[in-house]
Amino acid sequence: MGNFASSATESAAAYLERLENDLGSYANNANLIVAGVETSWLYSWNHSKIIAVDAKTAIVGGHNMWEGAYGNVANPISDVTMLLSGPATESSHKFADQLWDFACTWGDSWWNSTFYVDVERRDGVSWWSCPSTHPSLLVEETGSATVLALGGLGFGMEVPGGTSGGLPAANDSEAACSGLFNDYINNDSDYSVANLEEEGLRALVASAQNNVYLSQQDLIAPCAPPFANSYYDARLFDILADKLINNVPVRIMVSAPGAKQSLLAPYSNMKKMTEISDILVRKVKNQNNISQAHAEDIVCSSLQLAPIRITAGIDTWSNGNGVANHAKVISVDDAAFYIGSKNLYPAALQDFGFIVEDAEAAAIFTAEYKEKSWNEARSAATVDFEAGVCNL
What we know:
Layout (H helix, E strand, L loop, with lengths): L11 H12 L9 E8 L3 E2 L4 E4 L3 E5 L5 H4 L10 E5 L4 H17 L3 H6 L1 E5 L24 E8 L30 H4 L1 H6 L1 H11 L5 E5 L17 H12 L4 E5 L5 E3 L2 E2 L7 H15 L3 H11 E5 L20 E5 L3 E5 L9 E8 L1 H19 L5 E2 L4 E2 L2
């Protein structure tokens, strides 16, 4: 956020200095450029986590490069990131090109560099230098998986091709934190075009015929109107309700309510697990025009909802903090899955990830992550149709 530094934020200049110190002699021949960017007053910045090399290999997912979150700490964060090789990785370069184009275009005045875009360059790098755009390369296919890249631009960035043809408003008044301000994420047509990844991820969930698996930080957003005025993704909950109505099992694993790394690093937005199940019951009731009791029966018959656990039966770390899930994972029918930086709770940030459609890869992912993580979490489930648990 510009060149401000505080106990909770690090300026671009401070990060560049720390990066040089961390690299040591490896920085001697490197052109280091760091940008601290907020693209809009509407709470929007780069949230993607990308390491891309020569359009051949990319590491993409939820992990931040924060030693204080994943390293030698009392309550490390759980997360998921993928390594991908092949032609699809070029999309990660192209997405980064868009982010750098914004930074280099707008980081040119005192006002912008102070409050929005601050670009810092290492000594010896000319003040006008910016990373070159990545040239299109012919990259050899290294596997058989079908991969789709998905990205979103949040607020404030120019949308290639314009913003016409967006989605109509979701028109769910309860999805807004406050009726006094705009619910851009659920109701703004231009936003839906700038953030097509959201509709892409909803389409992935909607395609499920046999099962839906979500491993997420939360499905509930923090309310801070007017900057963040969307409580949940109304369209996503409509789709999840439709799956439950049609007896498609839905499994959801999120952070424990109140989970945090520290006072300034929360990893859960909801106060209790029933915030999610309450919305699902209401959506099922309204879609089918049925009684509350009937809607609850439908939800109890096909939903599994639990906070993440590292070990079954142990609810907190030794320091008393709840277990936090930072993964952004969607899997459907044990056939296709998404791993990236995009949360399913409303957040108007720049995000990026991949959908992988491949039976072999999906089977490995199911065995090594989905089943193992759920086997530990289900002891704390508030709803588990397989175990006959339904605390709504």
